[in-house]
Description:
This protein is of the alpha+beta class. Helix content is 57%, strand content 12%. The protein has 15 helices and 8 strands. A hairpin with a 4-residue loop joins β3 and β4. α4 (146-161) packs parallel to α8 and α12 crosses α15. The radius of gyration is 24 Å and the shape is globular. It starts with a helix and ends with a helix.
Amino acid sequence: MAETSKLLSEFQQATDLDLCLYSVKEEKIIESYTRPLAVLPKKHLLKDLAKEDGRVQLKQEKYLSLLAAFPFKDNLVVAWSTSYSLKGKGNYDRQVPLLSVERFRHLVFCLYWLLYQKEPVFKENIGQISTGDNLGLAMSDKQPSLAGYLAEEKIMTDVRQGDLDKYNQDFRDFVQVGNFGGFNPTSLRSKKNMAIAATTLYTRAAIDGGLSIPEAYQVSDEIIKGIESDVQISNLYEYTRAIGEIFINRLCQQKRQAVSPLVYRAQQYVNEHLNPPPDLAEIAGQLHVSQSYLQHVFKEETGQGVKNYIDQQRLLKAKQLLRFSSDSVTDLAQQLGYSSPSQFSQFFKRLTGQSPQQFRKQADQKENTGR
Length: 371
């Protein structure tokens, strides 16, 4: 099973096909390998597919996405191609909005061969089936709310910080409580307007995060040109999520180019190990350099010492949690790796002039009054 899981995971990352394993006996999905926000096939559909014969079933659902399924051991392997046309890995890129049936068929052929080492027999039914209305949300029916505003601000904060993993995680929350305002979900022009508005917000967030203004606007212009040329936007949430990913990758690329590989690796290590935070000796040991050399190069390139950088990253994390979570200061102190709430409060006040409670109260007041 572990070998099958590894193969499916690697195949998904290589092809961008969404995959899942459905247990016929348990009547549930036991593993999934998907892009962020991918829609899983509904249970009744998987039950119907499991009743079919051993051939590879190739179907098309109502939003023009393709789906294939075939048995493997006691499970059903399901692959599908969700329709969206932006991709944000590395430099700016675009994909054809929909895979052709023939290309999708070739990819499924390869997947079947990897699992069985023989050619599949296809049972093609390119009719229409339903896997749900994209994300199953009536986006235009949502009412603006403080929760929606905070969810949007969280993902923009993630863009500013160039944190792709956090962005994808927080975007899931935005899907639940955020909104794009009032628009016609069946109008392509309305969807394009929303995507362009989102691009504008991402552009500003990326500039705030350090992306150069010329590059930010160049990326924005290219994305908007692509939006205008698209003939279909079937999933507005995934479409706009992918735009944000493009800006994050450009921002990270610029940050990597601004410092030496050594300093960049040191920054990455700190960002990934904030609880508890590493000290200079630990970071230098991980990078196989002396402490004095790392401190010298780090300060020369960034203008601050390693400890100051660690403190700034811990402060940034603390501000995020104080603003976007309802956990108590005591709980936050523990999450952030402080030995006690008082130690956390002393650290926070030393760097900001405010206690954590004062910062949270001030942030709440600004959000409630819109100032």
